[in-house]
Amino acid sequence: MAAARLRGAMLALAAAGLASPAAAEGERDLGRIVYGAHCAACHGADGRGEGPMAEFLTVEMPDLTTIQRDNDGVFPFARVYRIIEGGAENEVHAASGMPAWGERLLTDTYILHGVRVEPGQREAFVRARILAVIDHIAGMQEQ
Asked: CATH number of 2-139: 1.25.40, 1.10.540, 3.40.50, 1.10.760?
């Protein structure tokens, strides 16, 4: 089941044009926008864990710019996807209050300003946004 969901996520990534380094700026902006709206309050605009809400949380925010370095130079795409979506590894974040963004973004499909996401397109809508955020975070990695 998880492999099928990840395969679907990769297909959504390719369909969104984010799998290519030549992705249009507008497509890359989606990750920056979603990150800014949903992640930066805790993780900070620069991803270093110093967002304005971080001081109110009971755990220290991780530095998202070192994910690749801390994983032997490989960005752990599938693990990051599961954490953001709220999958198997999200229990690590339960104490921090990190929401399962798959569910939160699914809720957004109902309340988007002026955009109606059809029921059959909601899963792709959520995947595209999670993948765009991952693309944004991958671009934050220290060299």
From this structure: 1.10.760
The per-residue b/e assignment along 34-57, b for 16 or more CB within 10 angstroms, e otherwise, is bbeebbbebbbeebbbebeebeee
Residue type, 124: A
Q: What percentage of residues in the chain have a pLDDT greater than 70?
A: 67
Tens-place pLDDT, residues 96-114: 567 778 777 777 666 655 6
By the 8 A CB rule, do 61 and 42 touch? yes
Beta-carbon contacts of residue 2 (< 8 Å; ≥ 6 apart): 82, 87, 88
At 139, give phi and psi (nearest 5°). -75, -15
As a dihedral over the C-alpha atoms of residue 105, residue 107, residue 110, residue 115, rounded to 10 degrees, the angle is: -10
Residues 29-48: tens digit of each pLDDT: 889 999 998 899 999 999 99
